[in-house]
Amino acid sequence: MRKKWTLLASMMALVFILSGCEPLLVFDSKGPQAARQANDILLSIGIMAVIVIVVMVILAYILFKYRASKLPDDYEPPHIEGNKWVELVCVGIPILIVAYLSFVSVKSNYIVESTPEGYENQEPLVVYASSSDWKWHFSYPEEDIETVNYLYIPTDRPIEFKLYAYGPISSFWIPQLGGQKYAMSDMVTTLHLAADEAGEYMGRNANFSGKGFAEHSFNVTAMSQADFDDWVEEVHETAEPLTEDQFEKLLEPGHLGQMTFTGTHLEFSPAPEHAHDSMSEEEMEDMEDMENMEHMDHSGH
């Protein structure tokens, strides 16, 4: 009786503890991209759960049906040929499951890599998000504002992030708005997000980048477009301009609090947007000069 009450008390305690847990951020989506990814995760979990349940039921049936019985020691089971239908089911069903999940994954990948659904006809807010050891720098070129370790965005408007890094590879991630994407030092990657609801969200670096990785995070505040415009106006009235020397100090390894500036570092330290794109005219001319010199050398020989 004591064991029974102990087991019952443990189960009740577990229920109360789990009821106080907050929902996982990846399932508490506040934007179309995150909602799409959360649905795909739940779909995968559902399919895997069905597979596990079916396999466990079949296992229990096999163990019961073919359990050891009181047969003579010299008993030999009859030879059974393979069943083509059983083999077809065992091979065909996994193929269909993998094909279906592959189709869903590829389709979702194209969706989350493009402008969020429902926002195709709106002008996106472009934000350059660059990382350093261990800070996040957010540049608003159109608003001529730069922030450190915090991000303000308007709701119901697409956000186009341009990601790159001053240092090791980082991973830009706002779980409630969408999936992560890498920020690298020699190229710019683009991430499309949108916030459907106003609120405070957590953002962080999801890629290990040294001893300060644990605190390499930032705060995200989604607000109405009117409130966002008021914030932009307030920054221009109160914030100090960002200088090149000050930005160089910000890049030094370490942790900082939230900071706000007018102007952006893009003016004196532009993003490497063309590092892996077509060569500039000067590079093309240099390449042609080198080819001409090689041609002359060969002609001379």
Structure explained in plain terms:
The protein is an alpha+beta fold. Helices cover 41% and strands 21% of the residues. The chain contains six helices and twelve strands. The protein has helices at 2-19, 32-65, 84-112, 225-238, 244-250, 281-300, and strands at residues 125-132, 135-140, 145-148, 150-154, 158-165, 170-173, 181-183, 189-194, 199-205, 217-223, 240-241, 259-262. The strands form two sheets. A seven-stranded mixed beta sheet has the order 8-5-1-2-3-12-11. The chain has a five-stranded mixed beta sheet with strand order 4-10-9-6-7. Helix 2 (32-65) packs antiparallel against helix 3 (84-112). The protein is elongated. Residues 275-281 have low confidence and may be disordered.
Task: Summarize it.
This protein is an alpha+beta fold and 301 residues long.
Task: Describe the protein's topology.
Layout: H1 2-19, H2 32-65, H3 84-112, E1 125-132, E2 135-140, E3 145-148, E4 150-154, E5 158-165, E6 170-173, E7 181-183, E8 189-194, E9 199-205, E10 217-223, H4 225-238, E11 240-241, H5 244-250, E12 259-262, H6 281-300
Parallel strand pairs: 1-5, 4-10, 11-12
Antiparallel strand pairs: 1-2, 2-3, 3-12, 5-8, 6-7, 6-9, 9-10
Helix pairs in contact: 2-3
Shape: elongated
The CATH topology of the largest domain is given as Immunoglobulin-like
Number of strands: 12
Strand order of the largest sheet: 8-5-1-2-3-12-11
Task: Extract low-pLDDT stretches.
Answer: 275-281
Tell me the quaternary state.
single chain
Q: Could you spell the SSE succession in H and E letters?
A: HHHEEEEEEEEEEHEHEH
Structural class: alpha+beta
Number of domains: 2
Beta-strand proportion: 15-25%
- The total of helices stands at 6
CATH architecture of the largest domain: Sandwich
Whole-Å distance between the termini? Answer: 102 Å
Radius of gyration, whole Å: 29 Å
Helicity range of the residues? 40-55%
